């Protein structure tokens, strides 16, 4: 699960565009948005980098929010080689 802060998300139209961009990457993605806190939670098979790039491309740059359960979002050096 990926939690994002999107400061430019201010209305339901913004949420719709964000949903559409993420769905274009992964039609099975689950996106939950909270306009008041400018946050979006994404459950998707796509990588964080792909989701961030898609959102940036449509004018909604996002910042990953670290959580106690997902160290990967807060520390890129934690990646392990396959």
From TrEMBL:
PROSITE patterns named in the record: HMA_2
Gene3D superfamilies named in the record: 3.30.70.100
Organism domain of life: Bacteria
Positions of the HMA domain: 1-63
Cross-referenced Pfam families: HMA
Protein name: HMA domain-containing protein
């Amino acid at each position: 699960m990926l939690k994002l802060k999107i400061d430019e998300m201010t209305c339901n139209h913004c949420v719709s565009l964000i949903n559409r961009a993420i769905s274009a990457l992964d039609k099975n993605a689950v996106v939950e948005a909270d306009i008041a806190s400018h946050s979006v939670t994404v459950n998707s098979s796509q990588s964080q980098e792909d989701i961030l790039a898609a959102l940036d491309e449509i004018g909604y740059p996002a910042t990953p929010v670290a959580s106690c359960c997902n160290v990967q979002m807060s520390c890129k050096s934690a990646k392990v080689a396959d």
